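User: Quick one: structure for sequence A, then sequence B.

Assistant: Sequence A:
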Amino acid sequence: MSNNAIPKDFLKNVMQNGVGRYVCQLQRITFRFCKSHGSSRFMRDFIENHLLDFTQKHPGVVVYLQPRRHRAPSIVSEYLNGRREVMEMAGKEVGDICKWTEHMRTRSGVQIVNILKNIHTDNPSIQDIWHPFMFKDPELAITKFPSEKFSVNLKTGKTATDLVLEELSADSYENKSKSTIDDK
């Protein structure tokens, strides 16, 4: 059986967040609860004992309280990218509500998805992904170092310095031969 409940997409992130300064992606959070219903008991305890600390630590997040009659408690978080998430809190204790509130605060707001590929680019190339061992001998992977074979400096041809020196020596030879011909 395949899992089609979670959508599949490429990895996304909030670009440049943290370069210069960090911007919390949670724009506002709404705590919905009932003033009298038993399932909202832990939400009311959280609001009375922990919500003031949360608002003082995170002044950039707007906090709303929304009493609703005879409804299950929930947390609604809205992010800067326009995404909105609702988390039902019925049966969750105060510690769990604190953890979920912190989880929503630290999220980027991007939808949770199964990642299709580890690497994705908006500008695909026909070339493969470069890595430092791309054009190296595969024998390097199983060699014990230090190795005599791979310790030798490989000289594939004449260097630019060798070519310049040859050119200069050829010019000086021609100049010497011309001067000896002129002397005769």
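Sequence B:
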Amino acid sequence: MAGAGERDGEEEEEEIVCLEASFFINDKYTSLSLSFFHYLPPCLLKTDFDLTGQLVWPGAMLLNEYLSKNVDLLKGCSVIELGSGVGITGILCSRFCREVVLTDHNDEVQKILKKNIELHSSKDHSHHAELVAEKLEWGNSDQINQILRRRPGGFDLILGADIYILGSVPLLFDTVKQLLQVRERDCCKFILAYVSRAKIMDSLVVSEAIRHGMQINEIPGTRSVVGNLEGVIFEVTLLEKSPM
């Protein structure tokens, strides 16, 4: 006769349910238009929570609001966005930039990103920059170099919004550093829309930027409440090297 401990173990084992990967993936998207700077970029997104990259997160709303009020920052620039998700920020940027590269590491997210690029390109936007989607896993030097081989001059701006989870922050700043170093002598910077959800993450983002040889500064006037969370825009640049 089985003892109580054995029965508990059996019950715990029975509660374990294994689901196929397809359970978390579907191709049902909702079309949404968001208004920034009197501009409505059409965008497909998910209405459930299968993958974080298939949603529009508060940080993206914060970043888009900031960019729409500071369009001179974008005019004539080449831009790469990290963790683009559905691509809403890149679509906005394409109205003002000369080049926009949207990146994400997830193949399913890449599908919706490319769908949104096609949807945007199907409209009459002849005066907008060309939108390109590239696969980029943070810290993957091969993928970074592949992107840079096609753009040896690098980028004027690196953008990111709500793109941090605890284990990914060091790889995020490793990627940012590699991109910033291409334009070391020019004014290249990383604009990060940050939404505070945990104090440990607040300190980690700042400490990792510093550890990677960067300075991270809050842009004055950008601190605001997004939903019920506090958000802010950071400007991140490489520290200037001391003269020999």
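The mean pLDDT is 80. The chain has one domain: 52-238.

User: Thanks, that's what I needed.
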